[in-house]
Write a structure and sequence with these properties.
Blueprint (H helix, E strand, L loop, with lengths): L5 H5 L9 E2 L4 E2 L2 H6 L6 H12 L7 H7 L7 H10 L3 H14 L5 H13 L27 E4 L1 H6 L1 H16 L4 E2 L10 H5 L3 H18 L3 E4 L2 H10 L8 E4 H10 L11 E5 L13 H9 L3 E3 L18 H4 L9 H11 L4 E4 L2 H13 L7 E4 L6
Parallel strand pairs: 3-4, 3-5, 5-6, 7-8, 7-9, 9-10
Antiparallel strand pairs: 1-2
Length: 383
């Protein structure tokens, strides 16, 4: 309940630390940058929570619309925790839980959850289609291989996500990694279901996955998406899901380091890396993707001004990729991020998240910047 976070809420000093990355003094909150009002920053959302528990206002759908523009990127936690020891995301998440419990969610969130409840995925497609991304590839169903390669909803159903799933699978095979897939047995990881506030449905998906993994004897998992990585690594243990989980960039970096994966050189090019929030800030993995890029002959890695723990979110987290609560426009974080990448002199943005890939790919097109920069998944450099 929101009242369980009374101490955290009352500790907010309204100092504005949640708005800026102070070591570089640049804006860091995607929704705050876009809308400009305190109600779209952590400072405003904590003030809202305080007013609710003090009985000054009642929660309603209009207020929750402001809360749901949060991408759950973790930037406010990164800044606020270091400044005053407050973790705003816990409060924001609890606001969403209460909104779901009271039926006060915006229509966009309602429709997303309906699709997840009815279809088990946001694309409204049958489970039988989940394995189609692997057609014409020599990939076996999981049957006691060392690793499960979990591709998730985007790797299964999204066109660009399928391309990334195929390139990662080829890289894993080239590295001699023993892995299998679940195909039509795979279910959503549920990370975004939780982030929009439906903890009951999240627990259902989590326990169903855990039971399936244990039934099949799965002990080690490689994820395509940082979002699934976050769910399996940080949330599933609470329900007995203790698995060894790695994001694909981590295992490929190890394979390159151990000389199990040969890296081909490419024509000289400047590349900048976009840190996915759920790989970087939420799970502190900044080095593995950069190790891979630095190992590729011809790649010159250049950093954006906001990078690593200060990286600007693409805008697709917290369910926003499917609900579009943050909205589009010239102030959308993905379009700002594209210009930040161009300013480095890079010709390619590399990333390791299907959601980030889609968001930045769309932003490049929206900015008519296709002749200036392109985007590639990290695995696509290795083929």
């Amino acid at each position: 309940m929101l009242t369980d976070y009374r101490s955290t809420i009352y500790h907010c000093l309204k100092c504005g630390a949640c708005k800026q990355a102070f070591d570089i003094y640049m804006p860091i909150c995607p929704s705050g940058m876009k809308y400009g009002f305190d109600s779209h920053y952590a400072i405003g959302r904590i003030s809202l929570a305080r007013a609710i528990i003090d009985g000054e206002i009642n929660l309603d759908t209009a207020l929750m619309h402001r809360v749901y523009t949060c991408t759950h990127c973790g930037a406010c936690d990164e800044q606020c925790h270091n400044a005053v020891g407050v973790d705003p995301l816990r409060v924001i998440q609890e606001l969403k839980y209460e909104a779901v419990d009271k039926g006060l969610i915006p229509p966009e969130v309602r429709d997303y959850l309906k699709n997840m409840n009815v279809y088990g995925n946001p694309y409204m497609l049958p489970a039988e289609d989940r394995g189609k991304w692997s057609l014409n590839l020599d990939i076996k169903s999981f049957a006691n291989q060392e690793y499960l390669f979990y591709v998730g909803d985007m790797g299964s159903y999204d066109a660009l996500g399928q391309q990334i799933a195929r390139s990662v699978a080829k890289a894993l095979a080239a590295a001699g990694i023993s892995f299998g897939i679940l195909g039509d047995k795979e279910m959503t990881d549920g990370n975004e279901v939780n982030l929009v506030g439906e903890k009951g449905l999240y627990e259902y998906f989590a326990t169903a996955n855990i039971n399936l993994f244990k039934e099949l004897g799965i002990k080690k998992i490689i994820t395509l998406s940082p979002h699934a990585y976050n769910a399996f690594k940080n949330d599933y243990p609470a329900w007995g899901g203790d698995f060894e989980v790695q994001h694909y960039s981590q295992i490929l970096a190890q394979a390159i380091s151990n000389k199990k994966l040969k890296v081909k050189g490419i024509e000289k090019v400047k590349v900048t890396f976009h840190d996915p929030c759920f790989l970087g800030r939420h799970n502190k993995e900044y080095d593995a993707p950069r190790q891979i890029l630095k190992a590729i002959p011809g790649v010159e890695l250049v950093e954006m001004e906001r990078s690593r723990n200060n990286a600007l979110c693409c805008g697709g987290g917290g369910g926003n990729f499917f609900t579009d609560m943050l909205g589009s426009g010239t102030k959308s974080p993905s379009r700002i991020r594209v210009h930040e990448a161009i300013d480095t002199g890079a010709k390619i943005i590399a990333t390791t998240c299907p959601k980030c890939f889609n968001m930045l790919d769309d932003a490049i097109k929206a900015e008519n910047a296709e002749d200036q920069i392109t985007i590639k998944d990290l695995s696509q450099f290795l083929l």
